Amino acid sequence: xxxxxxxxxxxxxxxxxxxxxxxxxxxxxxxxxxxxxxxxxxxxxxxxxxxxxxxxxxxxxxxxxxxxxxxxxxxxxxxxxxxxxxxxxxxxxxxxxxxxxxxxxxxxxxxxxxxxxxxxxxxxxxxxxxxxxxxxxxxxxxxxxxxxxxxxxxxxxxxxxxxxxxxxxxxxxxxxxxxxxxxxxxxxxxxxxxxxxxxxxxxxxxxxxxxxxxxxxxxxxxxxxxxxxxxxxxxxxxxxxxxxxxxxxxxxxxxxxxxxxxxxxxxxxxxxxxxxxxxxxxxxxxxxxxxxxxxxxxxxxxxxxxxxxxxxxxxxxxxxxxxx
Length: 324
Known about the structure:
The chain is of the alpha/beta class. It has 3 domains: 3-110, no CATH class; 119-211; 215-321, Sandwich (Immunoglobulin-like). The protein has 7 helices and 8 strands; from the N terminus they run αααααααββββββββ. A hairpin with a 5-residue loop joins β7 and β8. α2 (41-52) packs across α5 (98-105). The termini are far apart. The relative contact order is 0.07.
């Protein structure tokens, strides 16, 4: 069988020196084209399939990428000789693995098992990527939900702080109002005490004045049976009340009714009096304005508990005004 009819013989028949040098240059150009993304789609597939089965090829690819990165980062060389020297140095470093990856490039793609394994790897990568994407989306949704809950809690906290501040302000206002009301009540209480004191003093003064402006007349019992003139009361100017003291022979009723009649026998004033067993005098206090100058008579009637009444006595008297 001719050597060129079986591609697997490329690993069994070593190339000549000139061919080996040309093959090394071709490999370097192929790697450089892959790294620079200058290969066609079919060539990239062939290279990637071969690379999955060769650790040495992956190492050279990694080295080529690092070299390209350094080349792009470094300043451009001034001569073409420097480029040629750099490529020769790189070829010497990786010359020990040139035969291996080149043998895997074509035969591996022709094997069905390799293609199946490659498809499985792609499927696993896709499924893993889908799982990772699903997990990432789930984590993102949970993160957004947590952020929303955190924002809601922050709003609730701010609202609570606002309500607390408003309640505190209202409480301070109520406290101030209560304090003002207490102060007002205290001021009113003091003013009321002052008014009460003034009222008590005025009442005391009025009582003293009234006590000094009362005219008194004693009427003895049985005055109607006497032959003399009726008792006369001379009322000074400024007198406000007249006290009529009615003498009784005996105290036999719990209450009495005294009725004052004028000269025309018309009642002008009446008052109920309580009896006292220790005294036989009944006191009748009459406003001075009710007794102008003239003649009068007091009819005294005893009132029993059963409701019966009995005339006790009559007391005539007269009133005149004392001229100043």
